[in-house]
Amino acid sequence: MKKVLQTNAAPAAIGPYSQGIEADHYVFVSGQLPLNPATGVMPEGIEAQTAQSLENVQAVLQAAGADLKNVIKTNVFLTDINDFAIVNSVYATFFKENPPARSAVQVVALPKGANIEIEVIAIQE
């Protein structure tokens, strides 16, 4: 059974997709841009953008009754791979113990001119 996740605590989808999907014991969170859900404004700089993207991920997970500790895989998309060390330092504050498997890749561009987008897969406990 598939359940569409929607929360006002994360930015609304900017296309024909869901913020997340809950299926069986999994939660799939669509790529989260660093948009503040209340204002629609994107913070400046990769450090603040990384934190905002992860806060948005966390909000969608919470809509499914999950949390960051449930995440088993992340995909990080960066417009500049040279930001990797900064992203790692912020990412480590969100995943303090038993971090999930992860991929990080450089892409040519992201929607809305973002520098980062993060998607995750989590399990329900």
TrEMBL record:
An annotated Gene Ontology molecular function: deaminase activity
Any Pfam family hit: Ribonuc_L-PSP
A GO term from the CC aspect: cytosol
SUPFAM superfamilies named in the record: YjgF-like
Similarity comment: family membership: Belongs to the RutC family.
Protein name: Endoribonuclease L-PSP
Originating species: Desulfitobacterium dichloroeliminans (strain LMG P-21439 / DCA1)
